Amino acid sequence: MDQSPSFAPNLETVNRSRRDVPFARIESYYRERYRRLDQSGEGCYRLTGLGAWAASVPEHVYFFFQRFGLEHRQLIIDLGSGDGLVACIAGLFTRSVGIEIDRWLCHEARHAISTLGLGERVAVVCGDYLTQQIRLADCLYIYPDKPLNELENLLSGWQGVLLVAGPHFPLHFCEPVQKLTSGRDELVVYRMRETDRRS
């Protein structure tokens, strides 16, 4: 007996489309937030106690996480998470924590998480990420504004992956395993070099 061909949906395509609607809500929320900041004269840039925050492009972050396959990770920590945009988008794929030193940005991130209904998957810690237990995550994300020497030293022997967005100084103890581009933005995926992972 002839059987009809199977038209079972591709699971990856189904999961992606399920994320598109909540992503659109996140993108809309932050687009409005940035419009208000621009109108007020504050803009989407702020100096913090440890560096600087600048707004990311939501569509690029979403694209990077899709292409990287973030849903296969258990926990991502956004180091210097600013107003929570990246942590919120990451929460569509896996559990996500943002760590930010600036109290106003932490407040803004927590407000976004609450408004967007992401509290079960996304959290924010107000503090210096170098003093937190970031090695508990199997994935770290950072958009650095200075060399990452201290972070690399802290990660010696760590088994996870480090996602570095934007232009940055070369890393010494990590090796690049993937490079993604979207518009003018770039994301490089690093792993600790084999010798450092065994230490």
Approximately what portion of the residues adopt beta-strand conformation? Answer: 15-25%
Which spans of ≥5 residues are poorly predicted at pLDDT below 50? 1-11
Count of strand segments: 9
Give the CATH class: Alpha Beta
So what's the overall shape?
A: globular
Task: Look up the CATH topology.
Answer: Rossmann fold
CATH architecture classification name: 3-Layer(aba) Sandwich
| Spatial gap, N to C terminus | 60 Å
| Nearest-integer average pLDDT | 91
**DSSP helix count?**
6
Q: Please write the string of helix (H) and strand (E) elements.
A: HEEHEHEHEEHEEEH
Instruction: Estimate nothing, just give the exact number of structural domains.
Output: 1
Oligomeric state of the chains present here? single chain
Q: Give me the CATH superfamily.
A: Vaccinia Virus protein VP39
Radius of gyration: 18 Å
Helix- and strand-based class?
alpha/beta
**Strand numbers in spatial order across the main sheet:** 5-4-3-6-7-9-8
Q: Helix amount, in percent?
A: 25-40%
Major sheet attributes:
7 strands, mixed
